[in-house]
Structure formats: C-alpha cells, structure tokens
Amino acid sequence: MIKTTNLHKQFGKQEVLRGISEEFNKGEVVVIIGPSGSGKSTFLRCLNLMEQPTGGDVLFNEQSLLDNKVEINQIRQEMGMVFQQFNLFPHMTVQDNITFAPKKLKGLSDKESEFLARKLLKRIGLESHINHYPNQLSGGQKQRIAIARSLAMSPKVMLFDEPTSALDPEMVGEVLDVMKELAKEGMTMIVVTHEMGFAKEVADRVLLMDQGQIIEQGTPDVMFTSPQNERTKAFLSKVL
Ligand code: ADP
Ligand code: MG
Fold first, then answer.
1. Ligand 1 pocket member 13 (CB < 6 A)
2. CA distance linking residue 222 with residue 231, whole number of Å
3. Cβ atoms within 10 A of the Cβ of 138, count?
4. Which atom of ligand 1 is nearest to the CA of 45?
5. CA 53 to chain centre
6. Residue 171 and residue 140: Cα distance in Å, rounded?
7. DSSP for residue 168
8. Rounded CA gap, 76 and 231, in Å?
9. Are 135 and 127 within 8 A, CB to CB?
10. Residue 119: is it exposed, middle or buried by C-beta count within 10 angstroms (0-12/13-18/19+)?
C-alpha cells in the first residue's frame, strides 16, 4: 500500500532520513521504535507529504506522491494521522470535530453527519459525549475522539505518532484498546510508540530506527527476544 524508495530528508545541512526503502502492506500493523531524534516523526510525515522528502520517493498504491499530477489532498484523505497532541478544535463540539472534514470535503448533510458521529462514537464508547466540548474531556477521551475524527474520512491507512505519550498513565490503556480494536478490524496501521506491550500484542512487524535509517526489523517475537544489531540491543535494554 505504501512504499518508500531510498527516502531522504534534510533540514538544512542536517540529514534526518538517510535512505529508507520500506514497504507497508494492506492490513499490516507496523510499529516503529527508536531513540528520540532518530527521525521517526519525520518519516511518518513524509509518508503523507506533511514533510517534503529531499530525495527518493513515496508510493501510495503504486502511485508516486511526488508526481506533479497527483492530487495530494485526495491522497491525504485516505491516510489518517493521529498525533501526540490531540489537536481537537476547542470551539467545536465532539460531533463537529468529528464531522468537520467529511462535511466540508464530502458534502455530508447535518443528518448524515450526526449519524456518522454517533456510529464512530459508539465504537470508541463515547456516544454520550457527542455534545461535549474538548475542555470537558479527559486526555484519553480527547485522543479517542481524535482517532474517531480521523476515521470519519474512511482512511485506508492510519498513521499514529506517539498517540499515548502525552497522556497520564491511567489513560494510556483506553487509547491502546481503541487502536487494538482497529487492528483487529484489519486497518492498515503504522504506529510510532514506546508501548512495547502494544507492539508485542498487535504488531506484525517492528522496525527500529536509528540516526535516520531502519537498522533492524522483524516480528515482535524475534525483535524483542533475539535482536541482532548491537544498537537494537542497546535500545531495547532501556525500554523493555
Ligand atoms: P523522532 O520523532 O524520532 O524523535 P524527529 O523526526 O522528530 O525524530 O526528528 C529528527 C531530527 O530532525 C531531530 O534532530 C529534529 O531536531 C530534526 N527536525 C525535525 N523536524 C524539523 C524541522 N521542521 N526543522 C528542522 N529540524 C527538524
Ligand atoms: Mg517523534
């Protein structure tokens, strides 16, 4: 579904991505781990061109995103993204947060919007909060709503950038549960996270990034029990 070939990204003189060639298949759940500053967020952001690569290519369903003819906004609609900071619109209700994009981009009516919001909220167990404002929600609830908001555009793949890192510990579980449900339903997911339990339970593959490259990858089983690379061993010894 997504393929990168020799992907490079520089900020000024700093080389942040140093040649990443990787594929993500339909239905796969891939967890990306690695030290802070290794380029994980930049890599995710290059996948939907929130960052412009400085070399190499990104293909989405075999189409190069760097091709001038590509409607990048169309493609972005098919790639949901959830960040560490939930970025809900503070002045909008939960329902309006969820349906803002599909109303604007797909022309949903008010009735269709409410139906969609209820359906998604039921899925994350927050239907009773449909008329709440973000400041009336806990961090975990906000992040679940942010996920529902992404799902409202019916994306083909979901990108998560440390979705639980800004949460109080007691709220991490409820967000991971929503993500596990999504994985079970067959969603294609690329997840940057430090939650090794999540990786063990749901990842098909774990990639380890270091200094702008993917230095090792494998099933969670193999990665966590018998990593080969010394840098992988050093990183895992700190987080496992
Ligand atoms: P990670 O998510 O693994 O912590 P990032 O992708 O956020 O790593 O950052 C990798 C490196 O790129 C860091 O050194 C960071 O300072 C730098 N970087 C990220 N975004 C920008 C930017 N917009 N401008 C300049 N440097 C950036
Ligand atoms: Mg990051």
1. no
2. 15
3. 13
4. 6
5. 18
6. 5
7. -
8. 34
9. no
10. middle
Provide the CATH number for the domain around residue 199.
3.40.50.300
Tell me if 38 CB under 6 Å of ligand 1.
yes
Report which bound ligand comes closest to the CA of 163: 2
193 lines ligand 1 (CB under 6 A): no
Which structural domain range is residue 38 located in? 2-84+156-237
User: For residue 80, what is the enclosing H or E element?
Assistant: strand 79-82
**CA-proximal residue: ligand 1, atom 11 (nearest):** 37
CA dihedral 119, 121, 124, 127 (to 10 degrees): -120
Q: Answer whether residue 145 is part of any domain.
A: no
95 belongs to a structural domain: no
Tell whether ligand 1 has an atom less than 6 A from the beta carbon of residue 232. Answer: no
> How many structural domains are present in the chain?
1
Q: What secondary structure letter does DSSP report for 130?
A: T
The two three-digit tokens of residue 109, written as one number: 């009516």
Query: Is residue 52 a part of any domain in this protein?
Result: yes
* Centroid of ligand 1 to alpha carbon of 147 (angstroms): 24
Walk along the chain (240 residues) and give the pLDDT tens digit of each residue. Answer: 999 999 999 999 999 999 999 999 999 999 999 999 999 999 999 999 999 999 999 999 999 999 999 999 999 999 999 999 989 999 999 999 999 999 999 999 999 999 999 999 999 999 999 999 999 999 999 999 999 999 999 999 999 999 999 999 999 999 999 999 999 999 999 999 999 999 999 999 999 999 999 999 999 999 999 999 999 999 999 998
Contacts (Cβ under 8 Å, ≥6 apart) of 102: 108, 113, 116, 152, 153
Q: Is residue 128 part of a domain?
A: no
Q: pTM of this prediction?
A: 0.97
